[in-house]
Design goal:
- The protein has 130 residues and is an alpha+beta fold.
- The chain has one domain: 3-Layer(aba) Sandwich (Collagenase (Catalytic Domain)).
- Strands 1-3-2 form a three-stranded mixed beta sheet, with helices on both faces.
- Helix 2 crosses helix 3 and helix 3 crosses helix 4.
- The chain is globular.
Length: 130
């Protein structure tokens, strides 16, 4: 993906709904669990980079209970739904967002393309089963 250093790394963290609720409350002001949160590893270009060390993109945190519940409700496999949310979280780490309609469409198109490359169907298609 353009703009991503070849030596980039990130962490994927699984938590329960209670921990996700606390993270969501503390960092987003929303007192409820959510399925995925992303936390950038770098604050900006002024953040020092250690030569030869991987560039830390950040953390993608998944609430296992919420993700499993959503997958069942949507008729998707847990693996496919979790993969979608990881892709979604990584795109946030890369600067994508879905705050405006145009940006949301761009982000969704990238998610669909990445998931297709993994053999996973369009998660936004009505009635999609992956």
């Amino acid at each position: 993906m353009p703009g991503v250093p070849r030596d980039a790394e990130l962490s994927i963290v699984l938590v329960d709904d209670a921990d996700m609720r606390q993270l969501n409350r503390d960092f987003r002001g929303r007192d409820r669990p959510t399925n995925v949160l992303s936390f950038a590893g770098r604050e900006g270009p002024e953040t020092p980079v250690v030569p030869g060390a991987p560039v830390g993109l950040g953390d993608v945190v998944l609430a296992f209970e919420t993700v499993a519940r959503e997958a069942r409700a949507q008729g998707k496999t847990l693996a496919d739904h979790a993969a979608h949310l990881v892709v979604h979280g990584v795109l946030h780490l890369l600067g994508y967002d879905h705050e405006r309609v145009r940006r949301a469409r761009q982000m969704e198109a990238l998610e669909i393309a990445v998931l297709a490359g993994l053999g996973i169907g369009d998660p936004y298609r009505a009635g999609a089963v992956s």
